């Protein structure tokens, strides 16, 4: 057990724990969507691109999976359908096969009923909007302001506070 030297390399994930803000967002779309501030900035960006409905749909599906009780699920499913999937939807998302999701499925909802569509939208965002977001002013300005905060004298004490928050 003398060979502890390579230990840090065998756990590359541990370095990810310390990433926050833009450096975390830049690692993956998953990480971006886990961070409320990241979601906020991404939505801001998508609004400019007129595709905010994609992330809203994705978030609604995530929320839907946690919904308990048949009645609540029916209501939520119907809401998702009318908001994002029906032909008259106000924020229609562009998914293949959405026409095949007919309204009868809404009567017997199950947690993963939107999973295929959610995955499609995730990939659409991942290979399209997400890479543009990382080059956008919204992202770069946020990154710049983070760097300025890190270098400010207050940041030292703030960093101590933040590390407490992040370690919970």
Automatic annotation (TrEMBL):
Organism: Nothoprocta perdicaria (Chilean tinamou)
Regions of compositional bias (Basic and acidic residues) in chain numbering: 1-10
Coiled-coil positions: none
Residue ranges with Polar residues bias: 11-22
GO biological process: regulation of G protein-coupled receptor signaling pathway
Gene3D superfamilies attached to this UniProt entry: 1.10.196.10, Regulator of G-protein Signalling 4, domain 2
Keyword presence, Transcription regulation: no
Disordered: annotated span: 1-22, 144-168
Pfam families hit by this protein: RGS (PF00615)
Gene Ontology molecular function terms on file: G-protein alpha-subunit binding; GTPase activator activity
Protein name in the entry: Regulator of G protein signaling 10
PANTHER family: REGULATOR OF G-PROTEIN SIGNALING LOCO
All copies of domain RGS, residue ranges: 28-139
Any one cellular-component term (Gene Ontology): nucleus
Key words, A-Z: GTPase activation
